[in-house]
Amino acid sequence: MKHFSSLSEYLGYLNFPRPEHPLLSVVPIDSTLMHGFRDSSPPITNDFYSISLKKLVSGNLSYGRTKYDFANGAMVFMAPRQIAQWDDFIEIEDQGFFITFHEDFIRGTGLSDKIKAYGYFSYTINEALHLSPKEENIMQSIFDTIKSEYRNNQDEFSKDIIISQLETLLKFADRFYKRQFINRQESSSKLLDKFNTELRRYYEDDHLNGLPNLNTIAELLTVSQRYLSDTLKTETGKSGKEHINQFILEKAKDELLGSLKSISEIAYELGFDYPQNFSKMFKRETGMSPKSFLKQQLN
Length: 299
Prior knowledge:
Blueprint: E1 2-4, H1 7-14, E2 24-29, H2 31-35, E3 41-46, E4 48-54, E5 60-63, E6 66-69, E7 74-78, E8 84-87, E9 96-102, H3 103-106, H4 110-114, H5 133-151, H6 158-183, H7 185-204, H8 214-220, H9 225-236, H10 240-258, H11 263-270, H12 275-286, H13 290-298
Parallel strand pairs: 1-3
Antiparallel strand pairs: 2-9, 3-8, 4-7, 4-9, 5-6, 5-8
Helix pairs in contact: 5-6, 7-9, 10-11, 11-12
Pfam family, one: HTH_18
Keywords: DNA-binding, Transcription, Transcription regulation
Domain HTH araC/xylS-type: 197-296
């Protein structure tokens, strides 16, 4: 698999203009530029963050394990060393933009830590950000400021100004993603139902192998772990891990009160390697040990 550590080489591979900065590229996208764009690529990786607004009439892009159809256009965020592959990029509507920067460009700045907290960089591509016209205008305005600073004679203030504008763009993206989660409440509810269904199926399987794993369930639902957890958090106020713990806890309570099994038997059936780990989790969640809980309920 080809890996790009040089921004100039990466942009050359895409048939995009050479960067004016060794660690940063700011490119407006239009139909003329896209005529020369590499219309397909095998899986590749790189050392760059990229933020793009694409309005492609046709084409698809695989990011991680998921394929996203660009028919309606989307804003896409990619992190370093993620696997990308695309094909059939043919046409483009209106304008867009493509910002690419090496992780070294923000190293040592406040953005270097903040950017890791934005979960959408780890989302699979079908969870891209779909903007309203008003939101798109806001993003385009921020991009225009970055482009202006990038193209002017750069001085000692340029990098700070660009990074500040990148932070603003990412904060707006965070806001718009939360709006997208809320607007997709029906979809989120369905995802929660599917999540609970997969948890039930996990314990119905005769080949139980340890505790339920959030990443495994996310793969079964064809979404990323981070997106699943964020969606559940928005829908219920609890993260994916908290949901799994709650599910295990309720199942444990049912077994403690509805069977004659020992605490050790229940622990192993739930997927714990050691009964002590089960007891610790139970006490952490309820404030009492399984034995104390059983005694309290029976009394």
